[in-house]
Amino acid sequence: MKKVLVTGGTGLVGQALQDIIKNEQPNDEEWFFAGSKDADLTNLVATQALFEKVKPTHVIHLAAMVGGLFHNMNNNLDFLRNNLLINDHVLQTAHELGCTKVVSCLSTCIFPDNTSYPIDETMVHNGPPHVSNYGYSYAKRLIDIQNHAYHDKYGHLYTSVIPCNIFGPHDNYKPDVSHVIPGMINRMHKLRTEQPEIPESEKVFTVYGSGKPLRQFIYSLDLAKLMIWVLRHYNSVEPIVLSVDESAEVTIYEVAEAIAKAFNFKGKLICDTSKADGQYKKTASNAKLRSLLPDFKFTDFEEAMQASVLWYTTNYDQARN
Ligand code: NAP
Ligand code: GDP
User: Which segments constitute the NAD-dependent epimerase/dehydratase domain (predicted)?
Assistant: First the structure.
């Protein structure tokens, strides 16, 4: 019987994993989803206590200090230190307790800023990341270095995945912290529900920045399925990009339009170019994933957006606002 510990099991991706596993009910795996209330993983003793309690054979390591462009720009030191601590505690404790496999989470936003496109798995360490999120990026890049070091010294299969931008139910909608999709969903909901005396056709929704940057977005439930596949079947230390196709890349303005459509918003969209754009693009190739799993079907972006907005409006009171 495999015993799988998911760190960060209460977050956006963790909740999606919970959903998939609840539906699947695997009979040869026992899953434990840990949040920060179960253990503060910046604390080594708390990390060891969690591992001693759960006794995992396998780990999906999601826990991290996570946030959108504006949160990263203001907190590079905290992103660096918290994530360095969490990652070292989780990987070293997994090693000490004899875990067979660990799948950790990197991100396409940790790739070099100055690069050729599309970006692939071999390019993670090729040059400095975008200046807005260097703390997060260098902490994440070191997971890959540490995985290789465990492999060289002990032969461990500690590996990592590289998702593109993620969205879905249970996201973090806190205005100063959130990524673009949950941030815009929160602001759109407020705009529509506040000041009901103003006709919606006269309301104006503000897209931060120029709206021109490009992003690939994966639905959290698709990512959860792919991560479970990685846990069960991907047996290499080298990272693997888990992203939608390059052709599915959209501009931030198109994202705003999809959110407006999902809310049936009747007003206007404008761009506030006084706000930062961040990295212009980070187009990643999913060729490696496609070669191993050619038939995987990603959920249509607009359909996933409709489901995400519906989740938010239905679960507003419990959402991380
Ligand atoms: P999230 O919704 O913000 O969830 C973060 C999770 O980490 C939560 O379960 C949180 O626990 C836990 N956590 C944070 N600090 C912790 C600490 N000190 N000790 C223990 N647990 C802690 O993040 P997510 O979007 O699901 O991200 C999951 C993984 O995907 C992360 O590694 C992230 O870097 C990566 N990723 C995310 C994106 C994206 O667009 N969201 C894109 C690429 C990669 P509580 O909620 O219980 O406090
Ligand atoms: P990134 O993909 O790592 O850069 O991070 P985000 O998910 O925060 O996306 C940032 C991009 O979305 C930038 O181009 C922002 O200018 C733009 N954006 C537009 N509106 C918002 C918003 O409400 N919140 C955030 N975080 N970004 C926004």
Answer: 4-238
